[in-house]
Amino acid sequence: MLRPSVVAMTSLHSVTLEVADAPAADAFYAAAFGLGPLVDVRPTESPTTGFRGFTLSLVVSQPSTVDTLIGSALDGGATTLKAAKKSFWGYGGVVQAPDGTIWKVATSAKKDTGPATRDVDDVVLLLGVDDVKASKQFYVDRGLSVAKSFGSKYVEFDAADSAIKLALYTRRAAAKDAGVPADGTGSHRVVIGGDAGPFTDPDGFAWEAASR
Fold this sequence. Notes:
Elements: E1 12-19, H1 22-32, E2 39-43, E3 48-50, E4 54-59, H2 63-75, E5 79-87, E6 90-96, E7 102-107, E8 122-129, H3 132-140, E9 146-150, E10 154-157, E11 165-170, H4 171-178, E12 184-186, E13 190-194, E14 199-200, E15 206-209
Parallel strand pairs: 1-2, 4-7, 8-11, 13-15
Antiparallel strand pairs: 1-13, 3-12, 4-8, 5-6, 6-7, 9-10, 10-11, 14-15
Helix pairs in contact: 1-2
């Protein structure tokens, strides 16, 4: 169950995943993560190979919740890219859904403070881009404000009023974080819904206007 968030003037409302089998993908996401209208699917035959240039992350409160959500995904047919484990930043793992979308489930906590839940604190869309500084400026020009910026390496936009957070990484770094090669061609197979759209960004990621 996703905790509610407030909507702002310039915000990201949802992502639509373009998949080969929409009914199967719908069933997988309902059972695995339960994100409701934040993640939609629609059918496509657009060709794609390798890394699609983005990942989606679920940020949760404790390790047992990470294990619960990853377990549900694996039960539904996802495959493990990085097994869940502790690291210096917390605890997390990466899986690939049957439709090919890469999901990271993580927490900054290293110990449980209560019973396992299925609550998701934040959903983060991470775009792997060619030029972080240029893509940052592109989005700033369209009304997004920057919350964190580490030069040409990483940018996170202010998402206090968005349903989904948006961040930028280099394509190579995003692929490394996901545990896959950076090579890939064809469609990203993701469309971003928000009130900054419609447009296509410099790396080919498409936005659509989304109603509140």
